[in-house]
Amino acid sequence: MKRIVFLTFCLFCTVATLLAQDDDAKYATQLLEVGTTAPALSLPTINGETLSLNDFRGKYVVLEFWASWCPDCRKITPKVEESGTKYADHGVAFIHVSFDTNKEAWTQYVQQNWKNKQAYHVCNFEKMKESKVAKDFHIKWIPSFYLICPEGKIVMRTVMVEKIEKKLAELVQLSKPCCRLKAK
Q1: Helix, strand or coil for residue 153?
Q2: How far from 9 is each of 15, 19, 21, CA to CA, in Å?
Q3: What is the maximum span of the chain, computed from C-alpha positions, in angstroms?
Q4: How far apart are CA 172 and CA 83, in angstroms?
Q5: Domain Thioredoxin spans what residues (predicted)?
Q6: Looking at domain 37-174, which of 3.60.21.10, 3.40.30.10, 3.40.630.30, 3.90.1300.10 is its CATH number?
Q7: pTM for the structure as a whole
């Protein structure tokens, strides 16, 4: 009887551990390591200007890798936009790197679904698997996110917007009383 109870308990613990693993355990394992300097990034914006990640040195930056055709990306768009709006007031820049290949579809989706005018949308219209940006940032799954510190190093990597939101909330709390995230 004790053996059956013990084996049942072990089975329960194993199942609970497997269920407790989040999406990062499945999809973020190949992303660049925390502490790594973010690769160079220079892409055209939705307005046709060139945006460079280096232009944001001195600020925290959230990089979101996504595409308008991606169901998971579309599902979290409202949450990502809400975070971008909330943390823009704290000096955080959100750069949305799209892997769309159809300019019209991308532009239409951004214009219809992104109200935050402080966000930056970039795309070079290459398929994700062929994109130099995807290779440089080790993107194998979208959506994927990086949080980059003011010095250009990766502070966080994840496929979960909730984790980015939580980390930004922690950083804002640490930066009180001014509530602006700045380079030290």
Answers
A1: strand
A2: 10, 15, 19
A3: 71
A4: 13
A5: 32-180
A6: 3.40.30.10
A7: 0.83
